[in-house]
Amino acid sequence: MAKVIKMETKGFKKLTKKFAKLPLKIQKSVSRSAVTAGAKPVKDAAKSLAPRRFGYLQEDIIHVTKRYGAVYVAIVGINKNIRRQIGQTRDGRPKFANPSKYHHLVHQGTKRGVKRNRYLRKAIVRAKNRTIAIIRTKYIKRILKEMSKK
Prior knowledge:
alpha+beta, elongated, 150 residues, two-stranded antiparallel sheet
């Protein structure tokens, strides 16, 4: 099951009312930018905790922000579109490493000796407080900025 950082706007009654008065387009922009900024500490922590063999797993950790209905979600994971040449086979053909193909084996482990390394879960736990703080400050700054424009 995926680890999730949930955040609701409690204790921001005045700010929530101001946010609701903003146009929908601006509300979406504010929410998206706050969630995107909040994903960066998780991505950075995951990169620092990822195991290093060739270093491709660390390099290919990305974050993507998506919208599901009225909710914005940041997903931190492995870029699926990248593969790198790590050498050649005996007959001269190139040999590739694609981190999205072996990430789950590193993260969950195997029965035959590969110990699991739950670096993404550890990254979420490590960056949770920083992420929430960044999202809150980003929301407050952007809402106040948009309110001052009117």
